[in-house]
Design brief:
This protein is of the alpha/beta class. It has helices at residues 15-25, 40-46, 80-86, 97-104, 153-162; strands at 30-33, 53-62, 67-73, 92-94, 124-129, 138-140, 147-151, 168-170. The protein has a single domain, classed as YbaK/aminoacyl-tRNA synthetase-associated domain (YbaK protein, Alpha-Beta Complex).
Length: 177
């Protein structure tokens, strides 16, 4: 794959297959279709009165190749140095678009905890912001950035666990920038 990953790349799991998996798990969701959203700012400008917690997802790695998916509220400032200290002293940086596609099967702008369906080797450590889980519902992209689905926090955790991951729920106030 080249260094440039575009929205024409087909994810390993389709959004329809993901939604079917949510149905199998009994995860209720509300679907919202919209134009492509690439940033938190795009989302804020187009979402209107969509209720619930709006979230961002940080795909991170350390120098040894370990990977994390940090899922938090969209306005949460995250200092990577402070977060690295919170995670045991690791030095974090953002994962590349190629690594993101290889491991989670999504392109930048479509990262969400639902991409864990593609991490069948369970290579990614999942960090969920404790404050985020207090919101109902939570809004995420289902593998593409042209749809948002709203789910209950407990259903999000159930989905992550069904993908073979044990999420760490952390108070990310200590990692605020």
């Amino acid at each position: 794959m080249s260094d440039s990953v575009t929205d024409s790349v087909v994810p390993p799991t389709s959004p329809e297959a993901l939604l079917a998996r949510l149905d199998e798990l009994g995860v209720a969701y509300v679907r919202h279709d919209h134009p492509p959203l690439f940033t938190v700012e795009d989302s804020k400008a187009l979402r209107g009165d969509l209720p619930g917690g709006h979230c961002k997802n940080l795909f991170l790695r350390d120098r040894k190749g370990a990977m994390w998916l940090v899922v938090c509220l969209e306005d949460r400032a995250v200092d990577l140095k402070a977060l690295g200290s919170l995670l045991g002293g690791v030095r974090l940086s953002f994962g590349s678009a190629d690594r993101l596609m290889r491991v989670l099967g999504v392109v930048p702008g479509a990262v969400s905890p639902f991409a864990l369906i593609n991490d069948t080797a369970v290579e990614v450590t999942v960090i969920l912001d404790k404050a985020m889980l207090a919101h109902r519902p939570l809004n995420y992209h289902p593998l593409v950035n042209t749809v948002t689905i709203a789910v209950a926090p407990e259903d999000l955790v159930r989905f992550v666990e069904a993908c073979g991951h044990t999420p760490q729920v952390l108070d990310l106030d200590a990692a605020a920038g």
